[in-house]
Amino acid sequence: MLNQTDLLRIFCVAAESPSFREAAARLAISPQGVTRAIQQLERHFGEVLFHRSTRQVRVTAFGAQLAARGRDSLLQLDALFQHAGDASETDLPTRVRITAPRSLARMHLLPAIARLALAHPAIIIDLRLADAIADVVDEQIDIGVRLGFMRDNRFVARAVAKMSFVIAAAPALVARTGVPASPAALGALPTTGYVDGASGRVWPWYLADGLGGSQQFTPTSPAFLTDDPEAERDAMLAGVGYGQLPHYLVAAELASGRLVTVLDDFAPPAWDVFVYRPQRGPVAPRIRRVFDAIVEALSDPAPANA
User: Fold this and answer.
1) Which of 80-89, 157-166, 240-249, 276-285 has the lowest mean pLDDT?
2) Above 90 in pLDDT, residue 137?
3) For the chain, what is the HEC assignment?
């Protein structure tokens, strides 16, 4: 049983040919196959498509109109499949949905994504900023950026950079409280805390224990809480408290002296920065193009140390 596209293609060739036999030769099928296709279309439309005689077949007025419309439809269909998947060669808008942490995206992704959008206007960039891990199925995510750990075999993931953490404070606060000698001393000092928007809990600080292992410190009575890392940085700049943030987020402030680090000997191992996509069939060229652009943007040393 032929599908509707095959039937239409056979009909259009037959309408341009002096006989079904010649149409069959052009299509590399049997003359009986052409006849059956025409009969099936005639039953479908309830119209005679060809006047038949022992000497020739001639398309009817209805058939001629159908052939003209059919040829246009087939040309559009062929053009669609000719450029399928390449957003730079088709006028069809193609959406790529990306999820990434807020501050990392603002500082390191947006310039690369903006360049990509200008170079490929047919690609619609849909950027969702969230520090929580996205549900790639429910949110229909094509590409994600994640910090830390990536052990889910449902994803194709590439580690592209390292991200270090620092504990820092405004110089005036350090002068007032004194430099903490150990992580335990942080409990008696004003601190800032980052709140997990999903659970409402304060994220722990990750520290090395000086013996090759790791430990955590959770601010029990923080002076400032927020679910936005940049707001936490601003509170630290104002001298509200000590905080732990990714190095890239406070690099300029450390370079200018507006913030200083403490407890450097207890800095934890750097985390990986991953770019990932779900494993769900073939990868469209538009997604591969955006994926590669994000990998290139984050593979610069800046996310880890700048």
Assistant:
1) 80-89
2) no
3) CCCHHHHHHHHHHHHCCCCHHHHHHHHCCCHHHHHHHHHHHHHHHCCCCEEECCCCEEECHHHHHHHHHHHHHHHHHHHHHHCCCCHHHCCCCEEEEEEECHHHHHHHHHHHHHHHHHHCCCEEEEEEECCCCCCCCCCCCCEEEEEECCCCCCEEEEEEEEECEEEEECHHHHHHHCCCCCHHHHHHCCEEEEECCCCCCECCEEEECCCCCEEEECCCCCCEEECCHHHHHHHHHCCCCEEEEEHHHHHHHHHHCCCEEECHHHCCCCEEEEEEEECCCCCCHHHHHHHHHHHHHHHCCHHHHC
What's the pLDDT score for residue 65? 93
- Compute the average pLDDT of residues 193-210: 84
| Those residues with Cβ within 8 angstroms of residue 112's Cβ, 6 or more apart along the chain or in another chain | 293, 294, 296, 297
CATH architecture for segment(s) 165-266: 3-Layer(aba) Sandwich (3.40)
Calculate the average pLDDT of the chain. 85
Residues of the chain with pLDDT > 90, as a percent, come to 43
Amino acid letter, residue 148: G
Instruction: Spell 75-91 as b/e; 16+ CB within 10 A means b.
Output: eeeeeeeeeeeebeebe
Total-model pTM: 0.64
Give which of 303, 300, 281, 271 is closest to 142, Cα–Cα.
281
In this predicted structure, what is the pLDDT of residue 169?
97
Q: Which one of 1.10.150.530, 1.10.10.350, 3.30.70.2330, 1.10.10.10 gives the CATH number of domain 4-82?
A: 1.10.10.10
Token pair of 223 as six digits: 């002076």
Task: Indicate the domain borders of the chain.
Answer: 4-82, 88-163+271-305, 165-266
288 sits in the region (left: phi over 0; alpha: psi -120 to 50; else beta) called: alpha
